[in-house]
Design goal:
The protein has about 300 residues and is α/β, with parallel strands linked by helices. It is built from twelve helices and 15 strands. Strands 1, 2, 3, 4, 5, 7, 9, 11, 14 and 15 form a ten-stranded mixed β-sheet that branches. Strands 6-8-10 form a three-stranded parallel β-sheet.
Length: about 300
């Protein structure tokens, strides 16, 4: 993919076309995310509802990963991160940015075009301008650490004020102590470094990117745990969340039954009998804080079980 982008870049330079941080056209973004049938932002990015994002904050990454894998989506997880605050989850709609090593002629043209469009500051600040509440700034900075620090505490405060969320960078951040003072903020980065950002330029904004071994599209739902981050295609968000919620409550019931000795592991881990199904529904009624199900809904989940 990067080879293709570089070829396109060489062509554009040779043809004299003015360059900027490329954004995907609305039609192209809708084409790539065509399975999503819900509301979209003005630029075509899928707009996952806020209530789904709130529900996503409560599901486990293992359950969600299993659902995605069974749907054929095998390249959505990335681990091996350092964090500002490992007790804070980063969950929300993705805004993507792709950075590349800079070269003077390219960066000059991008900055000139950005200035005419009213953009200010370094190009790493430009993605922040498009962020809205519930978004997560996700950036491919090709794993750069020294001089690959996409944000410090100033930009971190700006991001959190706009989104109420953290960031995910295949790159670095600086000002760790200052970032740690932002209550509710977290950053998944490859490392922290005291250096300033240098020799890096924004080449793509809200375009498909690669984060380690994961493919990420604008509008994806990202969830996180200390193990890493998982990018869920927008059109699968509701399904993944619903099944993950069921798996979570099913496991809670199973743990309770195993601890009490009422059922054996073999009974809990295999196809449930009518007796266990009835016991599960009764347990839900006794725990009103858990997701409630009817017998028909329970049978539907169990009949379609692929996890």
């Amino acid at each position: 993919m990067r080879y293709t982008v570089l070829l396109a870049l060489i062509f554009l330079l040779g043809s004299g076309v003015k360059l900027r941080a490329q954004t995907m056209s609305k039609d192209e973004l809708i084409f790539l995310t065509g399975e999503w049938k819900g509301e979209r932002f003005a630029d075509g990015r899928p707009k996952i509802p806020a209530d789904l994002i709130e529900r996503a904050k409560k599901i486990g990454i293992e359950e969600a990963w299993t659902v995605l894998k069974n749907e054929g989506y095998k390249n959505q997880f990335e681990g091996n991160w350092k964090m500002v605050n490992d007790s804070v989850k980063v969950v929300g709609r993705v805004v993507t940015a792709q950075f590349m090593p800079s070269r003077p002629d390219v960066e000059m043209k991008i900055r000139e075009r950005g200035k005419k469009e009213g953009r200010k500051g370094n190009t790493n600040a430009w993605p922040i301008e498009v962020l809205t509440k519930g978004d997560v700034y996700v950036a491919d900075c090709f794993g750069k650490i020294a001089q690959g620090t996409l944000i410090g505490d100033n930009l971190g405060n700006s991001i959190f004020a706009k989104t109420g969320n953290g960031v995910i960078f295949d790159g670095a951040a600086r000002d760790l102590s200052g970032l740690a003072e932002i209550k509710g903020f977290n950053a998944f980065v490859r490392d922290f470094d005291p250096s300033y950002l240098e020799d890096v330029v924004l080449m793509g904004l809200n375009t498909p990117i690669r984060i380690g071994g994961a493919i990420v599209l604008p509008g994806d739902l990202v969830i996180s745990e200390r193990e890493g981050v998982l990018f869920i295609p927008a059109h699968l968000a509701e399904k993944v969340i619903g099944i993950s919620e069921f798996i979570t409550v099913k496991d809670k019931f199973g743990h309770a039954m195993l601890k009490s000795g009422k059922y054996s592991p073999g009974q809990i881990d295999n196809q449930w009998t009518d007796e266990i199904k009835t016991a599960f529904l009764q347990w839900l009624q006794q725990n009103p804080g858990e997701t409630q199900l009817t017998r028909a809904q329970l049978d539907e989940f169990l009949n379609k079980r692929t996890w």
